[in-house]
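Worked problem 6 (solution included).
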Amino acid sequence: MARAVAKRLKPHTGGCLCGAIRFEAQGTAGKPHTCSCKMCQRHSGALTLAWVEFPSDAVTWTGPGGAPSVYRSSDYSSRAFCPACGSSLGAIDDAPVVALLVGVFDKTDTADLIAKSHSYRTGRPKWWHVEAVKLTT
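Solution. The predicted structure is:
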């Protein structure tokens, strides 16, 4: 798996539903995880979100809409979304980190996007199950 991640020379790309907000993220995604906290649920309308992080200077907003709009959701972070279509894109933290939702990536099958852990497992309904899987080659 490390070899597959090390081969990544092209940036990760992605964007919102309407295409106004697009991004390129350079390097390997960090902290791949899923989360079922109430804030993530309200941010997305989904019971669980899949996240990865990049240093802020590794993310470039490339679409015609520029950078996403943000809503200050906590003392340390702002949730990012497209002002045109409303798509959730992730979070821009005060620490120099941009956390992106895996669902907004153009290609979601690279090894560095696979969740390694699940945060706030008890925040999910008991009938909702999330399992991390290992990439098979």
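Discussion: The helical segments are 2-6, 38-44.
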